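re the bet — no i am not wrong, look at it urself. input seq straight from the record:
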Amino acid sequence: MTTAPAVRVSRMLSQIDDPERATLLRGLWQVYRFGLRLARAVRAFFTLFHRMVRAFALTVARLVELSVERFTN
């Protein structure tokens, strides 16, 4: 069974003798994890935005089709 990256990093950080270096590396690890969460949130936002714009464009196209059919008949 493999261990999660966070567990492996935590174990690695606990083995570092220099407290300042360990603190710096913990901070960098937290920044990295925050970046991953932010990237996931941005990706979700853009996916939702893309779906909304696509639905709006399809609705406008359908309304234009219907109005053209109505006024040409």
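see?? The longest helix spans residues 19-72. told u. also The radius of gyration is 25 Å. so pay up
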